[in-house]
Amino acid sequence: MITDTSKKVTTIHPPLARAWRTGFVKRGLDILASALGLLVLAPFFGVIAILIKREEPGPVFYRGLRTGRDGREFGILKFRTMREDPKSYTGPRITARDDKRITPLGAWLRDAKLNELPQLWNVLVGEMSLVGPRPEDPEIVKTWPEDARKEILSMRPGITSPASVLYRNEENMLTTDGVMDTYLRDIAPDKLRLDRLYVRHHSFMGDLDVLFWTVVAIVPLISRTRIPEGRLFVGPFYQFARRHFSWFFLDLIASLIVVGIIGTAWRLFETIDWGVKPLAIFAFGVAFLFSIVNVFFGLDRVYWSRANVEDGFLLALSNGFSSLVLFAFNSILIHRPRLFFLPALPPEMIVLFCFFISLASLIIRYRLRLVTSLAGRWTAWRRENTGFGERVLILGAGEGGEIAHILMRHSAIGKAFNVIGIVDDDPSKRGMRVNRAWVLGSSNELPALIEKHDVSIVIFAITNIPPEARERMINLCKRAGARLIHLSDILGAVKTQLEGPSKS
């Protein structure tokens, strides 16, 4: 997953996601999980403590100073993996693969990530979370850019994170020669980027994915394999929830409503040997069938808030195929009633079920598009009828006119302009709607149209035109008192903005 980290991303989250991101639910689960983990792992902790004591004298645990939420410092708890020697405390703050300070048992604990388990206590007391940006030494935090420091320290640090999974073999990437310089130059910037991505996009399912990958990364056969960055943020739990469960749940609700309404209405005119419970099971089965076929057609990978007409056609095709399967199964029951524990339903009833469930499925997936489309049309109507913004005519209904219309309606400058219509000399286009704007007349009618609609700006969007025709249209606009803007000038300004300031 590649995301621009240069600016804060504003996202609208559903209620559960908002509750998770505010920290209350996340903190509650942290307390439950850490308390249970400490209780279950207590005997295992005792075994590790004995092994550490038997290897050489010294404390069992190590407390290192780290920077936590809002810049508050705390002592992170780990099993001691270094020799009890002054050099262990005065050496580099980052360890490398050939670091002589690490004991043999400590190296094993580090490879298995078992030295991090005591941080469950840090989680329980509220200094850390199960998942979050890994806490760093205060001296390293001082090297972070101010905006990164403010963003990352806005939430509790975690025992694991996408960055810690991706750089789980970080020590093998470093050597003791210039370890700090190498870390700050080659590793720290990318970890900062990953931490900022996590802060912006963390979710309940995303945290489950990070925990899943943390456990998977310990498996010897996988530990040497690089987990793709995108899978860290959109892993199996996230994909199941967003691509399968959420859509199945919505389809199930729609199916229950449709089956309930049609089933109730049908009973008023005809008796059917189906009770409420069988109809509910039937609705569940229909929703499951539709979801499975949608997955087969690849519709679980469509980002429906940005879906196009082709996606809708494919969804209709998928629902039609599901309807045929359901209709065929019901037809078999009509001829072989003993094949199933319930009798067949009337074919007309199956047709109604399939039609309205398919319609509901389309509406559910296109609900945002429908709302925004209606809102856009209402806004356009309001603007056209209230005269908000400078009134604009577009000269030319070809590709240039299409580009001009897109710029006027969808860019930031569109808020200040109101496209009245299009002028074009093609008589077949007169009175037709092109790109949500009406062709009002020909170029000869420019003065009358400008006066009638109180137009202040005409955008010249015709590309291939003889010089004399161009001059005639320019003179017509000047005579009517409208300001003429050439599309090429607008595109030139856009290109300059995209390229940025030139360097001398």
What's the helix and strand layout?
Blueprint: H1 15-22, H2 24-55, E1 61-67, E2 73-79, H3 86-90, H4 104-111, H5 119-124, E3 129-131, H6 138-141, H7 146-152, E4 158-160, H8 162-166, H9 179-201, H10 204-216, H11 220-223, H12 229-233, H13 236-267, H14 276-296, H15 309-335, H16 347-365, H17 367-386, E5 390-395, H18 399-410, E6 417-423, E7 433-434, E8 437-441, H19 446-452, E9 457-460, H20 467-480, E10 483-486, H21 487-499
Parallel strand pairs: 3-4, 5-6, 5-9, 6-8, 9-10
Antiparallel strand pairs: 1-2, 7-8
Helix pairs in contact: 10-13, 13-14, 13-16, 14-15, 15-16, 16-17, 19-20
The total beta strand count reads 10
Using only C-alpha atoms, the radius of gyration works out to 33 Å
Q: What's the end-to-end separation, in Å?
A: 35 Å
Report mean pLDDT, rounded to a whole number.
Answer: 82
How many helices? Answer: 21
The coarse silhouette is flat
Task: Provide the spatial order of strands within the biggest beta sheet.
Answer: 7-8-6-5-9-10
**In this structure, how is the largest beta sheet organized?**
6 strands, mixed
Structural class: alpha/beta
- Supply the number of structural domains: 3
Helix content, binned percent: 55-70%
Q: Strand share of the residues? A: 5-15%
Unreliable spans: 1-14
Summed up, what is this model?
This protein is of the alpha/beta class and 504 residues long. 57% of the residues lie in helices and 10% in strands. It folds into 3 domains: 220 residues, no CATH class; 125 residues, no CATH class; 112 residues, NAD(P)-binding Rossmann-like Domain (Rossmann fold), CATH 3.40.50.720.
